[in-house]
Structure formats: C-alpha cells, structure tokens
Amino acid sequence: MIVCPNCKHKNMAGSMFCSECGAQLGGKDALITQHISTSQIAEDTSTTARVPPVAPRSYQPGGVDAWGSLHLLDTGQVLPLTGRNEFTLGRISEGQPIMPDIDLSPYQAYASGVSRLHAVVKRDNQRAIIMDLGSANGTYINGKRLTANVEQILNHGDIVSLGKLKIQVLLKN
User: Fold this and answer.
1) Tell me, what CATH number does 99's domain have?
2) How many CB atoms lie within 10 A of CB 159?
C-alpha cells in the first residue's frame, strides 16, 4: 500500500497517482520521461485516409460536449464544464443546505481557503465569465484580485486562484 501524502488515502502498490485526490505518488522522481523515436513507425495510408484528423486534446477540453474545463494545477485533475452554461465553484461543508455545482473539497479546498460558494463560471455566447461571490479569501485572475460580484471575462489559459487553489481555465474555441 502507498499512502497519499496529500489526502492520506491508501492506494494499491505501484499506483502513480492517488485514486482519491489525483495527487502524484512517489515524489517527482517517480516519473521518468523517455524519448521515443517515431521514425521506425510505418504509416498505413489505407487507414489514415478514412480516419479524419483529430485536434490535440488541449483544444478539446473535457471532451466534445464541454465548452471548457478547469485544470487543477496542484493535482493535474481536469474538471469538464459540460451540460450547462453556468457553474458555481466552492466546497461542501457539513450541514450546509446550499451546495456548489463543482465541489472542490476533494482537492484540499478547505486548506486552500476556498469558500463554500466561492465563485461562478459561466458562458455567455462566445465569452467565458467568472465572478467572485463575496468569498473570504478572494478570486484572482493571473494574480489580479477580482472585485466581488463583478463579472470578469476569462481567456483560454488564464490562471484563476480561488484563495490559494490555482486553476488553469481551458476554453474551447
């Protein structure tokens, strides 16, 4: 068993990432990058002619139906924004009657200073917008604190901080 240093969850031996919170197990040296040469791979033109090219994953955040996704920088977890145009972000707290659409509790939200209802992310036509909901520790875009209850436009690649929890916003073109 490998115990996650982040959430203390017990994972199976050989696990590279925690099955509970997604944190990397075994330290930064556990993963080794290798160069793989593609010059020896023969391309079969009979199959490639029938299969349409697929855009790189970074251009399809969260899959085909998602209009964007939230990439949690500490854990590498990607949360797709799909099925609706507006999502509240925050953390669940015991006894709280109102719950956020996207619960960040599994990603150390409490320790990072994320409020129960911290911010809202929404799509308005072709724009993505974020608004701080009067959180205790603030919402930041690329290091600049947002004014509570004032909408701010998001761009692909922006780093949003909910308290100390850093999230990169990936938007579909």
Assistant:
1) 2.60.200.20
2) 14
Do residues 28 and 64 both lie within one domain? Answer: no
Cα 92 from Cα 104, distance rounded (Å)? 8
Q: Mean pLDDT across the stretch 42-57?
A: 40
**Counted domains in the chain:** 2
Angle, alpha carbons 24-30-35 (nearest 5°): 110
Tell me the pLDDT band of 134, cut-offs 50, 70 and 90.
very high
3-class DSSP state of 158: coil
Task: Identify the domain containing residue 165 by its residue range.
Answer: 60-171
Mean pLDDT along residues 61-90: 86
Mark residue 93 as left, alpha or beta (left: phi above 0; alpha: psi -120 to 50; beta: remaining). beta
Question: Could you tell me if residue 143 is inside a domain?
Answer: yes
pLDDT tier, 49 (very low <50, low <70, confident <90, very high otherwise): very low
The encoded tokens of residue 110 equal 């409490």
